# Entry
Amino acid sequence: MDAFFKLVAAGPLFFVSAWLLMIFAGIVGTDVGIHPFGYLTSMVVTIGLWLTLAPAIGAAGRATTRRSGAART
# Structure
């Protein structure tokens, strides 16, 4: 049941992280050399980041769980 609530909590977090990406891209855009982009582009970039980072984070989480479980026995 815990996984269900984590999934439900990820929905609003997606929209907030896309909004923050849009805001920070507008703030540092001239320093980095990019043009400010809108919310829809920010959502696409956020989906790409989540799809790239989620498997790595999941694998790292499982690796630490296995290590701590192996240390107990």
